[in-house]
Design a protein that fits this description.
Number of helices: 3
Largest sheet: 5 strands, antiparallel
Helix content: 10-25%
Distance between the termini: 142 Å
Strand content: 35-45%
Strand order of the largest sheet: 5-7-40-39-38
Number of strands: 40
Shape: globular
Length: 554
């Protein structure tokens, strides 16, 4: 007799019947009956965000900035460059941390990429890098901006004048007084015309109704003449060659020179042209690289100097250009002089010195007319008939020699450099074997980067890293420091100082107290080009536009 739950015997060769009920569980206290099913396993928590690299990066940045600030009063431009580099390295480090070492989830990284990338893309589409300021700060401008030609036909003709070369008739930034009205609120300067121009750092030169400057025109450089009263183009002379530098910008650097019925100009790659003032017809051309070392990093920047020959024989006139120094083959020199009439080489000279970016000027020192040039690591005086070095004085190694030397009474020459170098005065005197230059003083109270100084009533005025200062040149003491105008340029007309500010504004300052009397926005962006004043016509330009204003007269 069998029972329902009792296992039945199996047939021979057949597997035993399966037992009904729960599967056996050896851990069950009930002798083989299974317990409840196991609970689901919890997922491992994500690893915590790794924040310590952020602290390390920020700490290194703070330490680097503090160390730079505490090291020997760092010069401003150098400090800006250091800050930019340190900031870029910090940004790169934080980016690498976020995407590769932070332990953020993939979705968080994608979100971070979108939040950072979209604004950067929009910014790139709307704006572009427009070079750097004089303090090395990046300049940004909107893409696609166009300058519209403007002319006010109701403006009367201005008082004519001559501005034949770089920094005026004597190449020293000083002009005869013209008695300007100082109340520019009631009597503002009048805009005669405004027009687009090709990029360059040239100034205007003016003769009668001709206003001439240099420009970059695509892949060519150009010497261009405009009507001084209307801004209309009269003639243009082009030659091949595009010059561009990431920090220095685009286009020619030097300013043309007008002499008689001729105009002489030097391109950024050293191409020299002499043309007719009337119609721009080419008379002769030359290449400075055939007569010297060649262009430096920022191109040929020195403006041509005219040395007049006999008063009744203009064929003796010479065009003196900075060729750069002796070439590797030993040929050429620092200066080369061309015959103005023919373009033939009259002489080369300058010894073993090499050029920077300052222009030659004519001065009489120790009773001898001579060419003065602020060259690389030295200042020199050279004979006007041969270019032979008469004297030289050392200047700090690797400093930038850009601003013009300033000739002072008493056979003295003042020079100044930026980047923390400062200024010095040298007295030139005769010695038994020629000439000698003796340093009178040197200090850092005037650091003219590329803003040349002016002399008025025995005092020197200049832009010390963009701030206007007054220096007593006998002792080198600074009498005052007032007015931040950036790395602009100065023109002195009587006891009135016209400041072309780096911002594009033009400011009228009274001398000798330095009180600002008037200001107006002549241009709307960075302006490194010196202004030119012919009569009461003020010609201003930058690397995008040019304008002419009539300054109010008493």
């Amino acid at each position: 007799m069998t029972f329902p739950n009792e296992p039945q015997p199996s047939e021979p060769g057949q597997p035993p019947p399966k037992r009904l009920g729960r599967p056996s569980d050896p851990q069950s206290p009930r002798g083989g009956l299974a317990g409840p099913p196991p609970l689901p396993t919890r997922p491992e928590p994500p690893p915590p965000i790794r924040w310590w690299p952020v602290g390390v990066l920020l700490g290194l940045f703070v330490l680097a900035m503090a160390g730079r600030l505490l090291s020997d009063a760092p010069q401003r431009q150098t400090m800006v460059v250091f800050t930019l580099i340190a900031g870029l390295l910090l940004t790169l480090g934080l980016t690498l941390w976020f995407f590769f070492f932070s332990r953020f989830t993939r979705s968080a990284k994608v979100l971070g990429l979108l939040l950072a990338g979209i604004p950067l893309l929009v910014t790139f589409m709307l704006f572009e890098l427009d070079g750097f300021s004089g303090d090395m700060v990046p300049q940004i401008k909107a893409r696609g901006t166009e300058q519209v030609q403007m002319r006010d036909h109701n403006v009367p003709n201005g008082m004519r004048g001559e501005f034949p070369q770089f920094r005026g008739p004597e190449r020293d930034g000083s002009l005869p007084p013209i008695n300007l009205l100082e109340d520019w609120q009631t009597n503002p300067p009048l805009l005669a015309w405004r027009r687009p121009v090709g990029a360059a750092f040239s100034s205007f030169v003016v003769s009668e109704t001709n206003a001439i400057t240099m420009e970059q025109a695509g892949e060519e450089q150009a010497l261009v003449c405009y009507d001084a009263a209307t801004g209309d183009q009269r003639w243009r002379v082009n030659w091949p060659g595009r010059f561009q530098n990431a920090l220095g910008g685009i286009g020619p650097r030097s300013t043309p020179t007008i002499t008689g019925d001729a105009v002489v100009a030097i391109g950024a790659k050293g191409h020299v042209v002499c043309v007719s003032l009337k119609d721009g017809a080419l008379r002769w051309s030359a290449e400075l690289s055939d007569h010297g070392k060649g262009e430096r990093r920022y191109g040929y920047a020195a403006s041509p100097l005219i040395l007049a020959g006999a008063p009744d024989d203009p064929s003796d006139d010479l065009v003196v250009c900075v060729a750069g120094g002796k070439a590797p083959n030993g040929q050429g020199g620092l200066l080369v002089a061309f015959q103005l009439a023919s373009g033939d080489v009259a002489w080369t000279g300058g010894g073993s010195a090499s050029h920077h970016y300052s222009s030659p000027l004519l001065a009489e020192l120790a009773g001898t007319p001579q060419i003065v040039l602020f060259a690389r690591n030295r200042i020199l005086g050279m004979a006007i008939d041969s270019g032979t070095t008469l004297w030289e004085a050392p200047w700090p190694e690797n400093s930038q020699c850009i601003a013009q030397p300033l000739v002072l009474p008493g056979d003295r020459v003042m020079v100044s450099s930026g980047y923390g170098v400062g200024a010095a005065v040298f007295e030139v005197s005769r010695a038994s074997d020629g000439f000698v230059a003796t340093e009178q003083w040197a200090n850092i109270k005037l650091k003219a980067k590329f803003s040349s100084m002016v002399l008025h009533d025995g005092l020197v005025y200049g832009l010390d890293d963009g701030i206007l200062v007054c220096i007593e040149p006998q002792s080198g003491e600074r009498l005052w420091k007032n007015g931040r105008y950036g790395h602009g340029h100065l023109l002195c007309s009587g006891d009135q100082l016209i400041v072309q500010a780096e911002s594009g504004e033009v400011v009228l300052v009274r001398l000798p107290d330095g009180i600002e009397r008037g200001r107006f926005e002549a241009l709307r962006r960075r302006t490194w080009n010196p202004a030119a004043l012919a009569g009461n016509q003020l010609f201003v330009r930058n690397d995008e536009q040019a304008a002419c204003y009539l300054l109010p007269l008493k």
